[in-house]
Write a structure and sequence with these properties.
- By secondary structure, this protein is α/β, with parallel strands linked by helices.
- The protein has four domains: 187 residues, Dimethylsulfoxide Reductase, domain 2; 126 residues, Rossmann fold (3-Layer(aba) Sandwich); 49 residues; 132 residues, Barwin-like endoglucanases.
- A six-stranded mixed β-barrel has the order 16-20-17-19-18-21.
- It is globular and about 65 Å long.
- It starts with a helix and ends with a helix.
Length: 559
Amino acid sequence: MAGLVKMFGAGAMTNSIPEIRDTDLMFVIGSNTTEAHPIIAMEMKRARQAGAKLIVADPRRIWLADYADVHLQLKPGTDVFLLNAMAKVIVDEGLVDQGFIDNHTKGWQALKQSLEKFPLDEAERVTRVPAELIKKAAIMYASTYKAGVYYTLGITEHSHGTDNVYSLANLVLMTGHLGRRSSGLNPLRGQNNVQGANDAGASPVFYPGYQSATDPEVRAKFSEAWNCDAPGAGMNLNQMMHAVEEGEMKALFVMGEDIVLSEPNTSKLEEGLKDLEFLVCQEILPNMTTEYADVILPGACFAEKDGVFTNSDRRVQRVRKGVNPPGNARADWQILVDLARAAGYDMPRYNTAADVYAEMASLAPKFAGISHERIDANPKGMQWPCVDADDPGTEFLHGDGPLSGKAGFQPVEYRASLELPDDDYPLILSTGRTLYHYNSATQTRREAGPDTKQGEMFVEVNPELAEEVGVADGEIVKIASRRGGIKAKVVLTDRVRKHSVWMPLHFAEESVNYLTNDVGDAVTGTPEYKVCAVTMIPLRNRQKAGGGLAKAVLQSKQE
């Protein structure tokens, strides 16, 4: 979101999900779409069957890669080098959209000059992707009129995640793939209302509608509307977790998130939670974090409340109560209103969730024309920007040029990931989601179907690596990093690169985040879940662990 707001003026998909079926080319990077976003993946499959071209850039051979015209199986953490090398090819081949650049961008010459550091031969050495594939993908993307880029956490969960977004945005701008149907730059949000949460101001740097918390006029507007001294920018999640771990935070309110399972360097976080003076969890089900809570406030789930969810393509959709919440559970907004009043703030007397949305719309111009009543009359929902009651909403953004005015190119230097393999930890671990479970699996692991299909922690291992170090399919091994170790069942697959392993985040009993590094992106604080140095230890032969693996891997690399 941060990169998109800075460059384009809006932190969301530029285009709409239904437009995918009409595209001529899809560039999917850092997104295991069929497992993490299966409904969006259905549209991609339809487009592919209709003849659209497909480029996939991912360290794993995801399902979509089997159907791709080009699969760029890059080394984890080298996205900037790959994308900048593609951009240089586009310049060298004369495929830039100079008219779009002249009319809608600024800083082109600086970007163009910066690309000289990314020749194809060096890109192949750094990314491990053959130069001819990089060139082929770049030419395909630049020479196709309706070409859309789709990405998610494989791009953002890095210490240079915002740089990755800048590099993608540069690629879109230089080819003019913005402001037209079935194209653009499209982040696929990881949960059903992540976009809506950001829209509503669940951010340390924005008020609702992406209005800057450091802008004096914005703060004055919200101070007057809320009859309080509206605060400026706050701490991001990564900063908050470090404050907990260092004993600098006294109290924490956790709402709808299992931070013990989802945040990195879990052991350190658990010690910090033990030392908190006060922890409140607002949840629908018990999880790892509620074990540390002093107070648990029971919230209502989606089927037990009224309101709206906003999906990845800025579509605001109604949620209608189907059943009453159990016991003392209530809608989250009702709990928050009562907490504010108990703390001494004269919160307005909202009667319904529609009243809450109406207040937000009155203060955020992007949503001014959206209301529960209008959505009720539009069953497919309404997409922002929607500036007044006569505005039908916006299917795709930037049709008249970037909302930011002239979009500024952002030259990006390549920076390696902050924890790379060495003699003691010779493998790269990446983490992610699977088709069968949802995030921290608080809900899906309570159901027999998903848990029967996938009920225990596993690690994907390349067969060549397994043969070198002597582990078999189905064997239990220990995966260890500088921060801890967990056990997992080996799944042999050529989906992963030889010296990379992959693990899911869903299993609390062997949580992968005991391994991951809590270093964060410099702008957003998003942790580097996608690159972590680990070793693999066969538990049946503990005395040969660690050094034996490192020796085998290093010998293989030398060969």
